[in-house]
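step: validate -> pass
step: tokenize input -> pass
step: predict -> running
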Amino acid sequence: MEINKIQQLKAFLWICVASSVCLVSCQKTGSSISDYQRPVVESYLVPGKPIQVKVYYQKYLEDTIQYGYPLTALKLQISDGINTVQLVESKPGTYTYADSSFIKDKKSYSLSFEYNNKAISAKTTVPDKPTGFKQSSTSQDIVGFTPGSTNTFEPVTFSWNNTAAQYYMIAFKNITLNPDPVNSGDTVAYKDSETIVGQVASYETQRNNFRYLGNYKVLLFHINKEYSDALTTSSGTSLNLTNPTTNVVNGLGIFTALQADTLNLLVYQ
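step: predict -> pass
step: emit ->
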């Protein structure tokens, strides 16, 4: 199950939102980074994977860097309610715990550390792995644009079990080496296509899911409500400052967990 790059992409998406949308009370009043008191936290727990937590300063609105400056020399710990582990700063602002057996299915975890004499904390529970994930076809025909054609697109339907109305995200990851673009001459760089599908139990492909042909991994992520809220309700801009959604007490960002199942799809023309 190839989820590392998907995790990194979603982590990047959240940090761009959380660090570029400042609280009204945190508007720049000087030139010092210390004007901002809340750390930005980024962590995604996956069973069988080592723990990684990134912690950053909040950015100024006019900063052009992708991330805030890393917060170093912190003492982070994660507890499962019985055992507590100490994280090690493997590089500036990135704290890790290498034992991949610590994160387990369906267990709850809490993160805690101190910053500026305040207790920073967050909690999450590892969701179940998706079940019943299936597809109506193993291939997707992308009809080319030709004069006089109707350009009919017949979607592939993906479905899964979701009787409890849990939250899901679906991602399409092209694994073909040097794939051809759907439209010849398209120079837009490849990127994974991802959609927060919410509390449904099926998804039909759309033409804009695929800008490149080839073999895809289709990943269905079972996510928590806090992650869905963070990605769907953080809509503030520099013209309309709003509080970004977060589950970090005395901080910003996201501390969450997720699990995925994977299918294969051939996209051709």
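step: describe -> The mean pLDDT is 83.
step: cleanup -> pass
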